[in-house]
Amino acid sequence: xxxxPAWRRSRSRWTRSCQCVSRGAAPSFDLSHEEFQRMGQRVLxxxxxAVRRGQEDPILPSARGHEIRELLDAPLPREGIAxxxxxxxxxxxxxxxxRHNGHPRFFGYVVTSPDPVGIFADAMAxxxxxxxxxxxxxxxxxxxxxxxxRWLDELVGFSGEGSGILTSGGSSANxxxxxxxxxxxxxxxxxxxxxIYMSTEAHVSMxxxxxxxxxxxxQIRLVPVDASRRMRTELLLxxxxxxxxxxxxxxxxxxxxxxxxxxxxxPLEQIADVCExxxxxxxxxxxxxxxxxxxxxxxxxRDSFARADSLSxxxxxxxxxPVDVGCLLLRDETLSRALFGWESEYTAITQTDxxxxxxxxxxxxxxxxxxxxxxxxSILKARGADAIVETIRRDIELREALDDRxxxxxxxxxxxxxxxxxxxxxxxxxxxxxxxxxxxxxHILETIVQEGSAYMSPxxxxxxxxxxxxxxxxxxxxxxxxxxxxxxxxxxxxx
Amino acid sequence: xxxxPAWRRSRSRWTRSCQCVSRGAAPSFDLSHEEFQRMGQRVLxxxxxAVRRGQEDPILPSARGHEIRELLDAPLPREGIAxxxxxxxxxxxxxxxxRHNGHPRFFGYVVTSPDPVGIFADAMAxxxxxxxxxxxxxxxxxxxxxxxxRWLDELVGFSGEGSGILTSGGSSANxxxxxxxxxxxxxxxxxxxxxIYMSTEAHVSMxxxxxxxxxxxxQIRLVPVDASRRMRTELLLxxxxxxxxxxxxxxxxxxxxxxxxxxxxxPLEQIADVCExxxxxxxxxxxxxxxxxxxxxxxxxRDSFARADSLSxxxxxxxxxPVDVGCLLLRDETLSRALFGWESEYTAITQTDxxxxxxxxxxxxxxxxxxxxxxxxSILKARGADAIVETIRRDIELREALDDRxxxxxxxxxxxxxxxxxxxxxxxxxxxxxxxxxxxxxHILETIVQEGSAYMSPxxxxxxxxxxxxxxxxxxxxxxxxxxxxxxxxxxxxx
Lengths: 495, 495
Description:
Oligomer: homodimer
Strand order of the largest sheet of chain A: 2-8-7-6-5-3-4
Mean pLDDT of chain A: 94
């Protein structure tokens, strides 16, 4: 892009800095090209083992807490050991102690099977070691993240502007959204008089955010849900009115576009109407479910997203990026600049060009930020949005197939589903007490998890212990669904 | 660690999931072993180029904002392209647009030259894709992070317990510390009546944290500094008394163990005395400087660390880990559990063993957390703490050598230094006005940065434009220091 200046020709840094062993007294951590390649090849083999054994080994290791601690506990190492030994320990010691979230029969929580392209991109991001504080510190990486924000916005239909920030995940995205809403309301009321609203099914990160921000726990209003676990809008409205009459200031409503429990989607349009009429911030937590808005089946969500003040959306969930990368899309970027843009001499920006003046630290809590955008950029470029949306659509279809079979099996009881999550339980007859059914299902789940052949997570729905299966996986097939239900029936029947 | 169960022998998942191309209608993102190896080799080459060219190319690219945006802007890609093309673009397109922070003459901000072992470990962390929410979700990784916390604690001499959490960086660590201090005080005063204290030189992240948490900007007290830019403790004490008399509640004092501007270390012992006497939370921001406590020269800091309630410390700064990994060490873990441990049905923990019950989400904002500990664990094991401390010691020596030469050069004026940061300016004679000196030094810095042969950051010290050099680098040698000063003298002399 430019001719090399005189200093470059006159002196080769590289020749010198590659003389890896100590110059003077201090150790150098550099590797020669040969060493880098040789060790890199071992790293690559380890990465392959992680991907391969992550699909072949038991999903959860059987090792207990004290065994693992004994294996790993040690005083601070004063002397180093060979790099090869360290690399070896990743596969020999750590890999067998991993939960293999990318396994085709991993149905727990909302954890994805990471696209190898994303894994590779993350490796490159570490080698580039960009800290995305501001444009001047990472020009190319900053522009990559800004284009990724525009792509994510386009994918789900938010504002079309791509304003926002990549975060470490949905919890951080939700926190930033609430921090903005609360701050905006500070002018009319101190925090102990503010109130925020979400359903009883809302993600715990929003409740925690409210508490951290200084909204009293009892003013974090948990609105009851209907039979489909969707926020009851008429109760939301009643509570808003009641709080206003009591002198409290309603600050934000957090709606879920895909709850973590059953995938329930709150009545977003009705909630948007309420927020508009009441002039209250609408945040939509789409950390898990927002990408489904790109499918035909869930396209209606787009209309509500377009009315929200902020939207969370996690590429490390249903966009198949490795941990971590979350995203907050934000309607009005001047608000985040007003909250987070605290000037300092040390970080003063002297650029005048509007692109070059941009600083992520004006829009979020983090100063040094990992180059999380590279993996999202690389996955979207390599796969194309259409293939990703097709995979999301297929995950939803697999959940529907799971529900179909639950409906056909007399001893399985369906408890709720939406998007790619289904909750159900084994109930052989109506003779058992609720306590017995709970106990039996706990036994089923623990047996499956212990055997390591599949993985579900437990949850409680209206006090009942439920088996919860979540499919956010490009590897899962209908055979995996059948395997899971066969296991539930087998263990339940034997129990 | 255990015999494989029946399901494993009866059916090889792996054979199936390796038939990479589409099964049924949906695309698979898996690669065959051959493809993984072939692409992995290209990734490895790209990573090597990032490390190599990061030391050979101009440190900052000359490309302007609109050029980079034009290069990267595009609508959301609907169709994918070959993975090879994407990998190629990392080196061909993005690498020339990076700032090369690992370059031996990168003297800007507090950014490290990452240890290749850390880069490799980060790649493996992405392949393992552990989400460190709780022990049950990532047993081995959780224990690795907990042992890393104990090692970091031991390295700098905090509590010996290793209580705390790895974060995305110092800003997040500082935020968590203040969130705890503020929350603890909620019982005695609402946030608009709380006050926090730090010096005018304190890191911007603590000011932002106070604001986000709802402490009014005017109650974020910026205590003036002495000539060495250290907090003036007698003024801190006076302000504390005055605020109490005015009915405010002093909540926390944030002291710096290595300010970002000049590396200044606040009078930690005196501040600890004040905090003890006044029963106020003492947070020490050692994001940059804390590891220096492991050197003989700065060992005295350990005594104060042992008295603090919380301490920030960034392995992605002076412990040579790639971005991101910060750390908050915390005296009393029950406090973080009380603030962040909001129970939910979905995340309910059924384990009874104390090791297995542990959940990081009870101690911080994040739910899904990247496996940041692996790179710190791997670097400490491969290099040993002694070699790292030796490198830190050498960086400090290089700063002292830089100061020595500044003292010998009549046209250079020393403005302040501590740890591995030195601030100075070019001042050929006493004839120039302050404005002229500022302008000349701005010209020097911009020329150096534009030429790409070295990199310093600007700051303002008592309103004067200063050249700031920070050495957090295992590659920097005395020749690099001389090169930098030669350049300053050459450009200043010609200007």
